[in-house]
Structure formats: structure tokens, C-alpha cells
Amino acid sequence: MKIATWNVNSLKVRLPQVLQWLQDSPVDVLCLQETKLTDDKFPVAEIEAAGYGVVFSGQKTYNGVAILSRHAMRDVVKNNPLFPDEQQRIIAATIAGMRIVCAYIPNGQAVGTDKYDYKLRWLDALHDWLAAEGKTHEKLALLGDYNIAPEDRDVHDPAAWAGSVLCSEPEREQFRRLQALGFKDAFRLFEQPEKIFSWWDYRQMAFRRNMGLRIDHILLSPALATRCSACVVDKAPRKWEQPSDHTPVVATLDLA
DNA sequence: ATGGCGCGTATTACGCGA
């Protein structure tokens, strides 16, 4: 069982790449963020033709999330019931005995702004919701664009980013609070090379210079973490023509 | 210090992402 997450920065633009990547990497579950499509424009037929079911929650211009799955999905929930939100940033489904939560956590723009405050409140509510979900779903996974680089080793230039949005201590504390619920960062369950990132700015040739951040994550409940045998960032799509600024993260689970 | 790039919307210019 392979589960993955990818912020595609417009599914309208990136659909051919998503279909290509699924051919190359036929994961069981793929969580998408920043689809930027209203539900009436979602490319259901193309995704089903590739052998995947799909559920989605979108809006005009911004945000939007989806789960693609080769296995049946049930009990679909859109957004956090504890946090009424006009922004479409969460979709969850039960797949093969796992509760899969796909999240596009707010960016926060800059420390001290209204958007930053919204991000921290949003994360408070996410924590409380997942604490409750963990009680009813032993096998629980939170995949998505967290917009948080958890540690300095997840940042190409920690000094330059110190204290700024994506790296500030209150954001990192929110990540640790999720870990305190028992969730494990799948990527850090394994020995990894240094300077592995999941996002690079479009500007300044940041990808070629590996000036990136690791902000896309897969958190696993204890029952899934013990069954996780690998977690990798797949840089390949970032090298393609007209790429998303993010690249997929994939976890392998050995489920009975 | 600022903006660099890419996308969406719609105004060829701006908001936003990270």
C-alpha cells in the first residue's frame, strides 16, 4: 500500500502531469492540494479513466483538495467540523481500513499578519479534531502541504529563514503538538540523505540550486507508523516542463 | 530593500503562494 501527497498548484494546468506520475508511480492513494477548481470543473472522467476513484472539495481561484484512490472510499468529510471555514482545505475518507485526511494547511503569509493568526487558529482546531479522530480510527494518516518546515534540517538556509513564516517557533510548536498526539513524521522514521526538500521557489533557479524547504508531510498514527517501511520525496516531477513548485511525497505501508 | 516566477482572474494589473 502506497499513499502520497502532492500540492499541484492548479489541477487544470497540472492534470497531464498527475496522470503521467500515476502511470510512473501507481500509488494506491494520492492526496492533492491547491486544485484551484470549483467542483463542477473537476476532471472526474480523466481520473477515473486512469483507474482511480476521486473525491474533492474545491472553490474558485484558491485552495481546493482531492483524494484519488484505487480502493473504495467511504465516510467522506469536507473541512474540519470544529472549524467552520469558507476555504476548502480538508477532505477525509476511509480507505482500506485507514482514515486518510488530506489537508492544505494555510500558508500564513508573514508572521504577525491576520493570515498568520488564521493559520495558528486553524492548526489549533486541526489538533483538536485529530485528537478526537484518533480515538475512533486507530489507523489514521494526515497527508498534505503543511506549510511548516519542522526543523532547521528541513530548510536550505536556516539562518535566512529563522523566525519567518513556515519556520517560526509557533508553527513548529503546532507541528510538535500533532506529534504529541502520537503521530510520526513518516519521512523521519528512516535514515535520509541531507537536504531533501519538497518545495522550491519558482524564482532564482531555486530548484537547480536546491534552495528548498521540506513542508509537505505524511503523519502516521502509531498503528500505521509501525507498518511503514519507506518514505521518500520524489523529485522527478519537479524536473518536468511547467512543474508545480511542490513535488510528491510517498509512504509505503505494509498492511495485513 | 525589493523583486525575482507562476497561476487565476480579469483589470495587461494585481493578489497570492512560500
Written overview of the protein:
With 256 residues, the chain is α+β, with helices and mostly antiparallel strands. The chain has a single domain (2-253), classed as 4-Layer Sandwich (Deoxyribonuclease I, Chain A). Helices cover 25% and strands 27% of the residues. It has helices at residues 11-24, 44-49, 114-136, 158-161, 169-180, 222-225, and strands at 2-7, 29-33, 53-57, 65-69, 73-78, 90-95, 98-104, 140-145, 184-185, 199-200, 212-213, 216-220, 228-233, 249-253. The strands form 3 sheets. The protein has a 6-stranded mixed beta sheet. Strands 5-6-7-8-12-9 form a 6-stranded mixed beta sheet. Strand 6 (90-95) and strand 7 (98-104) form a beta hairpin. The longest helix is centred in the middle third of the chain and has 23 residues, at 114-136. The model has no long low-confidence stretch (mean pLDDT 97). The chain binds one DNA strand of 18 nucleotides through residues 9-10, 12-13, 34, 36, 60-62, 107-109, 145, 147, 164-166, 199, 201-204, 206, 213, 215, 242, 245. Belongs to the DNA repair enzymes AP/ExoA family.
